[in-house]
């Protein structure tokens, strides 16, 4: 996602705030008292958890965050408020309920492995008095914010009545409201802008076993339509996410290494809210959230992600294996649905024997936009155009070598003599051809928004290379 300059989105997080407590150590022996590990604790840390992890991620991304929740009048509650203040966050939206236990989850981590977790918390619904006080805080915040995020951990803050009233307020002020749901009855989220269950949660809520694309589509569509949502997003762990809006779109992810999925849903909700509040479309926000989740699962514990980390991850994708850049027309069409606000550059050719002239030409072409797609003539197409002795290199070899260039985003083969059909599907912003097309008709020029001609390097061509080989 492109940085949005001086704009800082203002986001309200409402939900179950808690503390995530970690005891970090190492294990080198088994207890003589019982067959359990003995963990030598070396350090201890406490961070915001639950809805607080959504807050952490938003702060890490650079958002202006407001928080509204109900906690207990206990030591854990005081520690939670102090943690908010240490991050420079306003605690005015935090309602304290007498006799309630503030949620605290304690985890023992030995040699990067979670050994045990123990919880101290209240799970009962907040009182009517607390709900009214919390709603009053939301009434004060909602007109001022860009997006509202509901983080439901099923600990009693987001009661059905309170949740419905918050969604009504969001609609009244025309504010997007995104929900990370909990439980098997989602009716209290009716009318929200978007919900983000994972596959297991979506299966539970819809009573549909999600085991293939057909059942996934059925479950997502049911959620969207039955709850009167604008969008539904089902997260699929290492398989990415599925978006249900005007159409169904499955978006893969490429997590390099998964250490811990703790809090990944919080990161997705935060990243979606941040990107959408920054002016991105739902598809762009989902792509951004997908990358954020891929980064955070590579960390241990309830982790956060920064814009710099996401930028680095995006760079690693651009530097992905050559094979991952080879796409069919169907694959590139689906992929470009997530990149509608990026400038697409297209060029085509045989690229039979790759030489320095090709490389420099493609580097210039890539400089015109965000994504460079090469339409690559098939072997049969080249034979029809250049004769039976061409190509020298097969389609597979030519495509792989082109895809290995950093300037090239994707390579898409085509069978026809011209790339007109491919250009008609891609509808590129910029069509690039060599300077020898000056004054000539360029195929697809009536489809692309702009045609640019690039000067070739004098004396560098596949034909001349072949002639020199024959002369020896």
UniProtKB/TrEMBL annotation:
One of its GO terms (biological process) is ADP-L-glycero-beta-D-manno-heptose biosynthetic process. The active site is at 266. Keywords: ATP-binding, Carbohydrate metabolism, Kinase, Multifunctional enzyme, Nucleotide-binding, Nucleotidyltransferase, Transferase. ATP binds at residues 198-201. GO terms for cellular component: cytosol. SUPFAM superfamilies: Nucleotidylyl transferase, Ribokinase-like. InterPro entries: Bifunc_HldE (IPR023030), Cyt_trans-like (IPR004821), PfkB_dom (IPR011611), RfaE_dom_I (IPR011913), RfaE_dom_II (IPR011914), Ribokinase-like (IPR029056), Rossmann-like_a/b/a_fold (IPR014729). Residues 346-453 form the Cytidyltransferase-like domain. Residues 1-320 are annotated as: Ribokinase. It catalyses: D-glycero-beta-D-manno-heptose 1-phosphate + ATP + H(+) = ADP-D-glycero-beta-D-manno-heptose + diphosphate; D-glycero-beta-D-manno-heptose 7-phosphate + ATP = D-glycero-beta-D-manno-heptose 1,7-bisphosphate + ADP + H(+). Its EC number is 2.7.1.167, 2.7.7.70. Pathway: Nucleotide-sugar biosynthesis; ADP-L-glycero-beta-D-manno-heptose biosynthesis; ADP-L-glycero-beta-D-manno-heptose from D-glycero-beta-D-manno-heptose 7-phosphate: step 3/4; Nucleotide-sugar biosynthesis; ADP-L-glycero-beta-D-manno-heptose biosynthesis; ADP-L-glycero-beta-D-manno-heptose from D-glycero-beta-D-manno-heptose 7-phosphate: step 1/4. It comes from the Bacteria. Residues 346-472 are annotated as: Cytidylyltransferase. Residues 10-304 form the Carbohydrate kinase PfkB domain. It holds the Pfam family PfkB. Homodimer. In the C-terminal section; belongs to the cytidylyltransferase family. In the N-terminal section; belongs to the carbohydrate kinase PfkB family. Catalyzes the ADP transfer from ATP to D-glycero-beta-D-manno-heptose 1-phosphate, yielding ADP-D-glycero-beta-D-manno-heptose. This is Bifunctional protein HldE. It comes from Sulfurospirillum halorespirans DSM 13726. The gene is hldE.
């Amino acid at each position: 996602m492109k940085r949005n300059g001086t704009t800082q989105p203002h986001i309200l997080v409402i939900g179950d705030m808690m503390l995530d407590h970690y005891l970090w150590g190492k294990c080198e022996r088994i207890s003589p008292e019982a067959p359990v590990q003995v963990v030598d604790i070396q350090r201890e840390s406490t961070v915001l958890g639950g809805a607080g992890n959504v807050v952490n991620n938003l702060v890490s991304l650079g958002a202006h965050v407001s928080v509204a929740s109900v906690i207990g009048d206990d030591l854990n509650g005081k520690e939670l408020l102090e943690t908010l203040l240490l991050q420079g966050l306003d605690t005015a939206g935090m309602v304290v309920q007498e006799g309630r236990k503030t949620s605290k989850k304690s985890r023992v981590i030995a040699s990067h492995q979670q050994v045990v977790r123990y919880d101290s918390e209240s799970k009962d619904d907040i009182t009517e008095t607390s709900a009214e006080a919390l709603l009053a805080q939301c009434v004060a915040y909602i007109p001022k914010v860009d997006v509202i995020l509901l983080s439901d951990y099923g600990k009693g803050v987001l009661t059905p009545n309170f949740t419905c009233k918050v969604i009504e307020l969001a609609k009244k002020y025309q504010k997007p409201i995104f929900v990370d749901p909990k439980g098997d009855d989602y009716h209290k989220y009716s009318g929200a802008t978007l919900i983000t269950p994972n596959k297991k949660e979506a299966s539970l809520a819809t009573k549909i076993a999600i085991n293939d694309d057909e059942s996934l589509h059925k479950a997502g569509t049911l959620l969207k339509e039955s709850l009167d949502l604008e969008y539904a997003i089902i997260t699929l762990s290492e398989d990415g996410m599925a978006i249900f809006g005007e159409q169904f779109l499955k978006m893969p992810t490429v997590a390099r290494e998964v250490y811990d999925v703790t809090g990944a849903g919080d990161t997705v909700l935060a990243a979606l809210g941040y990107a959408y509040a920054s002016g991105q479309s739902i598809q762009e926000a989902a792509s951004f959230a997908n990358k954020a989740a891929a980064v955070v699962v590579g960390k241990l514990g309830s982790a956060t992600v920064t814009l710099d980390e996401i930028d680095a991850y995006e760079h690693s994708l651009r530097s992905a294996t050559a094979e991952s850049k080879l796409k069919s027309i169907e694959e590139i069409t689906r992929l470009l649905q997530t990149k509608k606000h990026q400038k697409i550059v297209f060029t085509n050719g045989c690229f039979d024997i790759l030489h320095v002239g090709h490389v420099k030409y493609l580097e210039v072409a890539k400089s015109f936009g965000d994504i460079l797609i090469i339409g690559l003539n098939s072997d049969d197409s080249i034979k029809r155009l250049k004769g039976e002795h061409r190509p020298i290199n097969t389609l597979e070899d030519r495509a792989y070598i082109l895809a290995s260039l950093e300037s090239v985003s994707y390579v898409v083969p085509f069978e026809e003599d011209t790339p007109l059909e491919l250009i008609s599907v891609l509808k590129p912003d910029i069509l690039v051809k060599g300077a020898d097309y000056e004054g000539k008709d360029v195929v697809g020029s009536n489809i692309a928004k702009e045609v640019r001609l690039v000067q070739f390097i004098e004396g560098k061509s596949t034909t001349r290379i072949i002639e020199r080989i024959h002369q020896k």
